[in-house]
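Student: Please help interpret what follows.
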Amino acid sequence: MIELAYKASRFLSRGVSRSILPELGESIISFGFDDCPASAIETALPMLEAEGWRATIYVACGLCGIENHLGTHMSLDDIVAVHGRDHEIADHTFSHVSPNNLSTRAYMADIERNQKALKKLGLPGSRHFAYPFGHVSPSLKKSLRKRFKTSRGVMTAVNTTQDANLLNAARIFTGERYEAALRQIEIAKTKPQWLNLFTHDVRENPSEFGCTPDEFRTIVNAVQDSGIRVMTVDEAYRTIIKRRHK
């Protein structure tokens, strides 16, 4: 019943506080990592860097240094180091919370707590956000519209239209969703779109929310073979939004 309520809230959110982005003439791909497990920055980021690409890391500072089902999470020092390697640091709340468990006001306060933690590290304010667990409510979406340029969800696109306040994304998770991500890359070759690919841990025995190094390498190879431009979320957003003023 609880999961059904989450799905209902997500469905209702898709129709409110929309900010539709301009259509693209050619596709763009962005790589994202949520939370973020140390395995992602140790294993996946070097693969992207070898191609000259950079990713967007959706950080929840409250998870730094802990160990859970995703493995060990990166430290605060790791965040600074990743930023120094030109990857984008985006927001994922401080405590990795769901809007179903607290008020919108408290949720927004948790986001500001995360931003203060990042600022203390000497990092710039985040322009982009990802909903933890993919949980979103109409009231939260409305509030976030004023706080971030984009807020990313977890649902795979059914068309090329992108709502900046609830971006579609393809999950690089071992199993059927991994295969679906590969198909989305193939579709993007001929159907212009902004394709957001994301995962969590990248290790030999990943969680259900991650993938193996070989699987991630296959994704990287598929993107490289596609010839599609790879940009961080902020780079992609800036490129897309320019089309609105043409």
Remarks:
- Helices lie at 2-13, 38-50, 76-84, 104-120, 138-145, 176-188, 213-226, 233-242.
- The CA atoms of residues 176 and 197 lie 15 Å apart.
- DSSP finds eight helices and ten strands in the chain.
